Fold this sequence. Notes:
Layout: E1 4-5, H1 12-15, H2 22-28, H3 33-47, E2 52-56, E3 60-64, E4 70-74, H4 76-84, H5 95-111, E5 127-129, H6 134-149, E6 156-158, H7 164-172, E7 178-182, H8 183-190, H9 199-214, E8 216-218, E9 228-232, H10 234-240, H11 245-248, E10 257-259, H12 261-265, H13 270-277, E11 286-287, H14 293-298, E12 304-308, H15 313-316, E13 320-322, E14 334-339, H16 340-345, H17 348-354, H18 362-373, H19 379-389
Parallel strand pairs: 5-6, 10-11, 10-12
Antiparallel strand pairs: 1-2, 2-3, 3-4, 7-14, 8-14, 9-12, 9-13
Helix pairs in contact: 2-3, 6-17, 6-19, 8-9, 18-19
Amino acid sequence: MKWWPFTGKTKDTAENPSHPSTLDRLLTRNCSRDEFFLLYTKLLQEQMPNCRVEFSGESVLRLTGTDGKESTTCLDNLWLKYKDGGHDRADLIPIRRGLRLAIGILLFASSCTFPISCSPPREDRPVIGAKNFTEQVILGELIAQQIEARSNLKVERRFYLAGSYICHQALVSGRIDAYVEYTGTALTAILKQPVDRDPERVLDTVRRLYAERYGTTVADPLGFENTFAMVVRGDDAQSLHLTTLSEAAAYTPRWHLGVGYEFEQRPDGVPGLSAAYNLRFDGPPRTMDLGLLYRALNSRQVDMIAANSTDGPIQAFGLVALQDDRHYFPPYQAVPLVRNDALRRWPQIGAALQTLAAQVTAGDMRTMNEAVDGQHRDPADVVREFRIRKNL
Length: 392
């Protein structure tokens, strides 16, 4: 992945006291996408002047501290919310408040790697995190609601924390106490272990290494597996008679591939998959935020995407997930990760998680994902109804 330094000036307010601050400009102007990214990045640089800010692709930011540690995040989700005049998911407050919260989230995610003196103190309550796609927000909300229902604890939610790397850094630094990870992702992307396709062996390895390295407990699986799914448009699958990845290999030289940022480089991602199926595409993968993949596929900007098998839009849009007929992908069981310090401090967390073991099927997950993505319902309401239906 190539990176370019951010060169935008950040001294507008200092040079002209009457000039509105970067934050005020973000909150009061109807910015274009490019202007939004520029102002947002300037704000980040103003808050952490000792960090090096770089870009890769259109909207991926990398921050490098003076100690050489790195953190990455992307801005497209926030831009879409800003452009569409959306609302903050938690309490449906207007975009200006939501923007302030999102700025805080980005600064929080960065501070997981780069401690800064103005970092907010931790309150006396457990904090549940989640990555920046629908299923993760649903699962984070499920854990939070279950803890609150089974105890007298008030749970803080810190969702949309970019990808696995940011969530992992937040967990080990104590900025969050728990989040849901997938065993195959934990094995290869976090623990840097060889790909293993035996589900029980993978779970045992992940449990052992998280305990040894990070003082973290891997709770019992929630009951479903969310593997990667290579998805194509339904009309293409029908006209070309495609059901498997092996069959698609003959057509991929004319196709463009769309992937998330992690999938482009992780060991079980593009490099290994391409080698296993001899896939060759028309140019390098087009990397984008996970929330934009289906839009790109439906608008024919790409012809195949690396999605998730429990995504609601697969069925809603009449798409086809090609079979992994060579069994390339490792198992991806959804498991809560919890800091041992948090379990000792709030043992109610462990008891609440035990009640969620094996309670969520792949069908349940697809239904909830579609309720949020397709029907535009609030994740908290969807989770609440699921818990009632499951008598949780």
